[in-house]
């Protein structure tokens, strides 16, 4: 009788221990090899992309109009022609060899320099303030052709 009770008591004790463990591990629900979900839960809200991480060319950048250099003809037609087409204020006329010959002798670099600073009635940069030096040079080369 005594032995039978002991066995029953041991079974009950084991049942309580096992049941408690199962109950709490289900309640908390954290596995030992839960690295994936842990990484997912503690990951930062934002990420920084460094050059090379992604194909930056795939992102379409807004097209900057000034980025592409205008041709000498474009600059001449839109800006310089207002004076240089007919020789306003005795500006050297477009394609007029007699007007340009003495100036061309000084060299294109000097003409560009003078065009940037302006001289006499010739305004600085010929009023094309957003023109690059190269664009001014191209416009001059177009005019002296
Ligand atoms: C408002 C009128 C006007 C505009 C616009 C103008 N020019 Fe002139 N430009 C002149 C006049 C006037 C001269 C003659 C200046 C002088 O020799 O005293 C001249 C002279 C020049 C010369 C010769 C300078 C020298 O050293 O003899 C160059 C080069 C020139 N212009 C380039 C340009 C270019 C390039 C543009 C356009 C981006 C331009 N100009 C726009 C009036 C103008």
Automatic annotation (TrEMBL):
Pfam families: Cytochrome_CBB3. It comes from the Bacteria. The keyword S-adenosyl-L-methionine does not apply. The chain crosses the membrane at residues 6-24. SUPFAM superfamilies: Cytochrome c (SSF46626). Keywords: Electron transport, Heme, Iron, Membrane, Metal-binding, Transmembrane, Transmembrane helix, Transport. GO terms for molecular function: electron transfer activity; heme binding; iron ion binding. The keyword Iron applies. Residues 67-145 form the Cytochrome c domain. This is Cytochrome c domain-containing protein.
């Amino acid at each position: 009788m005594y032995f039978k009770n002991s066995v029953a008591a041991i079974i009950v004790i084991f049942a309580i221990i096992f049941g408690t463990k199962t109950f709490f591990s289900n309640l908390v629900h954290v596995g030992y090899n839960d690295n994936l979900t842990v990484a997912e839960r503690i990951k930062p809200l934002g990420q920084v992309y460094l050059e090379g991480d992604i194909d930056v060319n795939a992102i379409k950048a807004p097209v900057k109009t000034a980025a592409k250099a205008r041709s000498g003809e474009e600059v001449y037609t839109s800006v310089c022609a207002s004076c240089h087409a007919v020789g306003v204020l005795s500006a050297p006329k477009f394609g007029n060899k007699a007007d340009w010959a003495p100036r061309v002798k000084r060299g294109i670099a000097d003409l560009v320099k003078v065009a940037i600073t302006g001289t006499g009635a010739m305004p600085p940069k010929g009023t094309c303030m957003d023109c690059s030096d190269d664009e001014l040079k191209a416009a001059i080369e177009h005019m002296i052709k």
